[in-house]
Design goal:
With about 725 residues, the protein is α+β, with helices and mostly antiparallel strands. It has 24 helices and 18 strands. Among the domains are: about 100 residues, no CATH class; about 110 residues, Copper binding periplasmic protein CusF (OB fold (Dihydrolipoamide Acetyltransferase, E2P)), CATH 2.40.50.320; about 80 residues, no CATH class; about 35 residues, no CATH class; about 140 residues, no CATH class. It has a 6-stranded mixed sheet with strand order 11-10-9-8-17-18, with helices on one face. Strands 1-2-3-5-4 form a 5-stranded mixed barrel. The relative contact order is 0.08.
């Protein structure tokens, strides 16, 4: 009998199952390596996705312990990747993915700690002396918004935002002025109900720790230089002086990014018709502006024979266009879409100067990394998501062989060229609309369905008529100012009538019954599935890309199966909306403003008019209380709400509470109030924020999850 060598005595025995599993694992790795070899040009496109996953994790996870745990897991993944076979792409991808995810989480965490401003703990009525940092007129809302720096008030944030209505305005209020006033300061508003807009999060990263409205009288202790307002404001005022109404407001927006003069009716029509992207200074505007500057510089230099024969005219024109693009970006407020577009345009110009193909997905990825490194918080906002999603879909479509064949230049009659151009524009609009719909539904609970048709008119009209003629009008006005002549008047006439046509198209499309698709608030998990599947389909090029449709389908199924809430309660408890058995929505307070009504309707996926709760047959209301019976399925739910701050006799209130399933109040309710299922009063709302209730499933969703320690959440006491 042969003795077993000592070195083998302590090694685990290898069975045939182990060997088969090892061969199977090796075969899988080899298959993936061969696939990645075919996709080698597109692997770097996932760099911003890896970085973004860490940023998203910081927003989703609740507290520092969870953020640190995520970083540890990400580093463990990177460490585990080091044990994969050397020399393979899988090994490098796994290591990079772990490091990028960890880096993304640390970047946004670090910026939140260094650059953010915590909100004030509670509302406070104070008298303030403050320095005016910026002035933003909002003509459509009949008020002006001020950003102020309080003086000698260590108990207040370094920056606050105050609204001043027009009737309380005082001469001398301008950037640099010192003013004194009283105001009731509030923490920046969190979402009113689950799924609504979160201003508190945005304000935190903007450095705004409190908001409020100035109470007259306002005293100007030291006047600012109001004779020379900022360039952006002067330009906006000049444009609106040339054209009245909606046309002037939109013209000012296209030139400066100032949307304050756009009426709510026009803004809503632009949103519903799928034309809201024209109101955000992004790729269309930046590209048109830089292209016009390059064309003008190139043509002017070409008039000189010496310059045309000796100078690199295209390079000089490209440098001029780059400078103009940077100036335009800064003047329009440097929002994320504008910065992304400017960076992309600069990369395009650099590629052209180097003789490289510039308009590629790698360029878009580079722009995304640039934005995420400087403004990581923008990842979770609709502006970043819609801007990059639209550009990625356009470039991915343009790179498809069949689409390239369709757009390839050929010798044909002009009617065929025109028809081909219209078809290309229509297909591009359809692609963008499909990609943007889930993002719009997640953030705004609605998505335009006829945007591709509206954009057939709007995009050529804006790109080739409105913006060039507006630039020409401003140039001619500048030249004529020395002589006191309005040389730009003919160009302004063209711009005004073009924008009136644009608004006509927007209102006509928005009025169609199927212009907008509505969905109630749905979970972030469904949205993440759609985004992940969409990225998989858009960033890869082999047949494996279509595997992404599986996750897209799963996400869409979850989105479409989301049930609308039956009861919505705002975070302050004042406003309650209840869905009746007929599908209508009823509102507790009839005098609620448009913002509250829109927020409740959108979150519920409801496009009708909110009825008064007191008008319901199944409601029994007094001056102080309102009881509503809501039938869902085979069960009748009784909801009791308070309507005033008046004291209700304790025995009466206790009896009403005992007969109700749900009690809702904006104030503290006594301990003697015991409803059969749920009591929502000021004590609960201070912990949870707004509430959404699904009576069929008996589920409750809240704005503020228990244990959420993100720094923009105001402390509760």
């Amino acid at each position: 009998m042969t003795a077993t060598p000592p070195s083998m005595a302590f090694e685990p025995g290898q069975t045939r199952d182990d060997a088969g599993l090892q061969r199977y694992g090796t075969a899988v790795l080899d298959t993936m390596e061969r696939w990645l070899e075919k996709e080698r040009e597109h692997v770097p496109l996932w760099l911003p996705v890896g970085l973004g996953s860490g940023i998203a994790a910081w927003f989703v996870l609740p507290d520092p312990m969870a953020w640190a745990a995520f970083c540890c897991v990400a580093l463990a993944v990177a460490l585990g990747g080091a044990f994969l076979p050397e020399g393979g792409r899988i090994r490098r991808i796994v290591i990079a993915a772990g490091l990028l995810a960890c880096a993304g989480c640390l970047i946004v965490w670090g910026k939140a700690m260094i650059a953010g401003t915590p909100p004030i703990a509670r509302p406070a009525f104070v008298e303030i002396t403050a320095k005016v940092q910026s002035v933003e007129p909002l003509p459509a809302q009949e008020m002006t918004r001020l950003i102020l720096r309080p003086l000698a008030r260590d108990d207040l944030p370094a920056k606050i935002r105050i609204n001043v209505v027009n009737k309380d305005w005082r001469e001398g209020i301008a950037a640099g002025a010192t003013i004194r006033f009283r105001a009731r300061l509030m923490p920046p508003a969190p979402p009113a109900v689950p799924g609504a807009y979160d201003f508190a999060q945005k304000a935190y990263f903007q450095g705004i720790g409190a908001t409020g409205r100035a109470v007259p009288p306002i005293t100007v202790a030291q006047a600012g230089d109001s004779s020379l307002p900022p360039v952006r404001q002067r330009l906006s005022s000049h444009i609106q002086a040339q054209m009245a109404g909606g046309a002037g407001a939109i013209a000012a927006t296209l030139a400066t990014g100032d949307r304050g003069a756009i009426s709510e009716a026009d803004a809503d029509a632009m949103r519903r018709s799928g034309l809201a992207h024209l109101l955000s200074i992004s790729g269309l505007h930046v590209t048109a502006f830089i292209g016009a500057v390059i064309f003008l510089i190139f043509r002017l230099l070409a008039l000189s024979r010496r310059a045309a024969s000796r100078w690199p005219l295209m390079l000089i024109a490209a440098l001029g266009g780059a400078g103009a693009g940077i100036a335009y970006t800064l003047m329009t407020g440097a929002d994320v879409p504008t910065v992304r577009s400017c960076v992309s345009a600069l990369l395009v110009l650099g590629g052209l100067a180097l003789g490289r193909e510039a308009l590629t997905l790698r360029l878009i990825a580079a722009g995304a990394v640039f934005v995420l490194l400087l403004w990581p918080e923008s990842l979770v906002g609709p502006s970043f998501q819609m801007s990059f999603a639209a550009v990625v879909s356009i470039v991915a479509l343009a790179e498809h062989p069949r689409f390239r064949a369709l757009t390839h230049g050929r010798d044909e009659a002009w009617p065929l060229r025109l028809a081909r151009g219209v078809l290309v524009l229509f297909l591009t609009g359809i692609a963008v609309e499909i990609v943007l719909a889930p993002i719009a539904l997640f953030h705004f609970h609605q998505a335009g369905m006829l945007g591709s048709l509206a954009n057939l008119v709007a995009i050529p009209l804006t790109t080739f008529i409105v913006m060039p003629f507006e630039a020409l009008a401003l140039l001619m006005d500048g030249m004529g100012r020395a002589f006191g002549l309005g040389l730009g008047a003919p160009a302004w006439w063209v711009v005004e009538h073009s924008l009136r046509l644009l608004l006509f198209v927007a209102h006509a499309v928005a009025a169609q019954p199927y212009a907008v698709a509505l969905l109630p608030t749905f979970g972030a998990g469904a949205f993440a599935l759609v985004i992940a599947g969409g990225l998989w389909c858009l960033l890869w090029r082999t047949r494996a890309r279509w595997l992404g449709t599986v996750t897209i389908a799963a996400g869409l199924l979850l989105m479409l199966s989301a049930r609308p809430p039956d009861v919505l309660v705002t975070g302050d408890g004042r406003h309650v909306a209840i869905r009746t058995a007929a599908g209508d929505m009823a509102l507790l307070r009839e005098k609620a403003g448009d913002y509250v009504r829109d927020t409740l309707s959108e979150s519920a996926g409801y496009d009708g008019e909110l009825r008064a709760m007191t008008a319901l047959r199944q409601a029994r209301c007094s001056e102080d209380l309102c009881a509503v019976t809501v039938t869902h399925g085979n069960r009748a739910w009784r909801v009791l709400t308070t309507r005033s701050q008046n004291m209700v006799d304790a025995p009466v209130l206790a009896k009403e509470c005992a007969a109700a399933d749900i009690v809702i109040s904006e104030r503290w309710l006594p301990r003697t109030c015991f409803p059969r299922w749920l009591k929502i009063d000021k004590a609960m709302l201070r912990r949870t924020g707004g509430v959404a209730i699904d009576l069929k499933n008996g589920s409750v969703r809240v704005v503020r999850a228990p244990g959420d320690a993100h720094p923009w959440i105001a402390a509760t006491h």
